[in-house]
Specification:
Mean pLDDT: 92
Shape: globular
Order of helices and strands: EEHHEEEHEHEHEEH
Distance between the termini: 39 Å
CATH architecture of the domain at 3-142: 3-Layer(aba) Sandwich
Low-confidence stretches: none
CATH superfamily of the domain at 3-142: Gcn5-related N-acetyltransferase (GNAT)
Helix content: 25-40%
CATH class of the domain at 3-142: Alpha Beta
CATH topology of the domain at 3-142: Aminopeptidase
Structural class: alpha+beta
């Protein structure tokens, strides 16, 4: 399996990809630091990869850019026949805000629904990750629920206290002795994906017709 887009390629992850992923620069903005690639040693990453690769309820993919640089990873977990799977995607700090993540998701969603034949994709995303929430919504994902998780990453302290992040404070709560952060549960069905793509195609055709 190899998916080729205009700028990105999606393929099964290889153990050798870990060498590139370990070199990804951490995010400077505390807003995104909870989603950094783990700062483990090489042995820990190899054990993680081998363990996940043996798990039949998971699939691991690497995302390459047009220079054949590994810029991201994409995972499916909780695979339930052809009914659904849970998506995870990570793009390295040096490659975000360039459209790579959106292109990779569009490419993969076509493969997921039309080739693999899944009925629905589900995911969860931190409400504070505004960029990711916007991207998922633009691709047709809808919020189907929400839950809280322990806000144990050090960067969450800065998000709760620094004035420039005051708009994020409603996304945190105290539960007993714990600080918790809000996560959204989102879903997208095959029918919703096809309708979203048809709408975008119609909008593109209308724009061309107006020239």
């Amino acid at each position: 399996m190899k998916l080729q887009g205009l700028r990105v390629t999606i393929r099964p992850m290889a153990r050798s990809d870990l060498d590139a992923m370990i070199q990804w620069r951490p995010f400077a903005d505390p807003l995104y630091q909870p989603f950094d690639f783990p700062r483990w040693d090489k042995g820990e990453h190899v054990r993680w990869f081998e363990w996940r690769s043996r798990d039949t309820s998971r699939r691991l993919y690497a995302v390459d850019d047009e220079r054949h640089t590994v810029i991201g990873s994409l995972t499916l977990r909780e695979i339930d026949g052809r009914r659904s799977a849970r998506l995870g995607i990570t793009i390295g700090a040096d490659f975000v805000s360039q459209g790579y993540g959106t292109e990779a998701l569009r490419l993969f969603l076509d493969y997921y629904f039309e080739t693999l034949g899944f009925a629905q994709m589900i995911l969860d995303v931190a409400a504070t990750n505004l960029r990711a929430v916007h991207t998922y919504s633009s691709l047709g994902f809808r919020q189907v629920g929400q839950h809280y998780r322990v806000a144990d990453h050090p960067s969450y302290q800065r998000l709760r206290k620094e004035p420039r992040y005051r708009h994020l404070r409603p996304m945190f709560r105290r539960q007993g002795t714990q600080q918790q952060v809000l996560f959204y549960d989102m879903a997208l069905t095959r029918e919703e994906w096809l309708a979203t793509m048809q709408d975008k195609a119609d909008q593109g055709a209308a724009a061309l017709g107006g020239l």
